């Protein structure tokens, strides 16, 4: 299973571009720091990536107007969520579950799952 992070190397206005770039760096930095393999899929440089991402973000996860903005995160073909969902999962020590992966032994997430199982 490969985590795919749909990113944009260039995007609209300066303020939007800066926010998207920071969010992309947050996601990819976390994945790299936790040795979670991922693939960057650039929607700015590859029309097929842009089309695929837009078609595969579920209706309930789309903005009210316009198209979904990067970063969008998938586990292979399965939609995981956008930056806000990733951020919430990270705050809750639940990123592996968010990504559809098994938390490694000794991680905060694995310890939290073990405590829940004991209750």
TrEMBL record:
The keyword Ion transport does not apply. Gene3D superfamilies: Glutaredoxin. Keywords: Cell membrane, Cytoplasm, Membrane, SH3-binding. It is found in: Cell membrane; Cytoplasm, Cytosol. Its main location: membrane. GO terms for molecular function: SH3 domain binding. It comes from the Eukaryota. Monomer. Interacts with PFN1/Profilin-1. Interacts with ERBB2. Interacts with ATG12. Interacts with BECN1. Interacts with translating ribosomes. This is SH3 domain-binding glutamic acid-rich-like protein. It comes from Gambusia affinis.
